[in-house]
Amino acid sequence: MSSLVGVIMGSTSDWETMKKACEILEELNIPYEKKVVSAHRTPDLMFEYAETAVERGLKVIIAGAGGAAHLPGMVAAKTVLPVIGVPVQSKALNGLDSLLSIVQMPGGIPVATVAIGAAGATNAGLLAAQFIGSFDPEVQARVAARRERITQDVLDNAELPS
Ligand code: RP5
């Protein structure tokens, strides 16, 4: 089956973060592709990737970047697919730079921005799964079952030290 979710990132150094999104997609058995696409190092590739995303069958794009993180916004500008932006934790400013670069899109071109770092990448995978689940009942059932497991895990391990 062709990929439904495209996971892109600005650098191989983003992989430690972005693999969390991929782990969720694998766990929920959602076909995805992953690729390094940089807004400033490979701008032509970025445009081609975004422009061909719909015809290649993708339904959602997850884009992670750090620093002056223009990748998610630029990709969103070149596709009508939903784009989820993951702010990668940068060394200099701990990812606050990435967050503000991604989240503050001017009205008109949305990027669904998640939290900085690994938690954000995990939630990006889950959010993409929920998008897919809105038209694929099997995926939606797997998302619901995962939620139930998390709930049960909390209920089963709620003991606090006396
Ligand atoms: C961005 O610059 C990437 O998304 C990465 O988070 C950051 C640093 O990249 P490297 O210098 O580690 O390749 O483009």
How does this model look, in words?
Belongs to the AIR carboxylase family. Class I subfamily. InterPro entries: PurE_ClassI, PurE_dom, PurE_prokaryotes. The chain has about 160 residues and is an alpha/beta fold. It has a single domain, classed as Rossmann fold, CATH 3.40.50. Helices cover about 45% and strands about 15% of the residues. It contains six helices and five strands, in the order βαβαβαβαβαα. It has a five-stranded parallel β-sheet, sandwiched between helices. Strand 1, helix 1 and strand 2 (about 30-35) form a beta-alpha-beta unit. Helix 1 (about 15-25) runs parallel beside helix 5 and helix 5 crosses helix 6. The chain is globular. About 40% of the residues are buried. The model has no long low-confidence stretch (mean pLDDT about 100). It binds 5-O-phosphono-beta-D-ribofuranose. 5-O-phosphono-beta-D-ribofuranose (RP5) binds near residues 10, 38, 65 and 88.
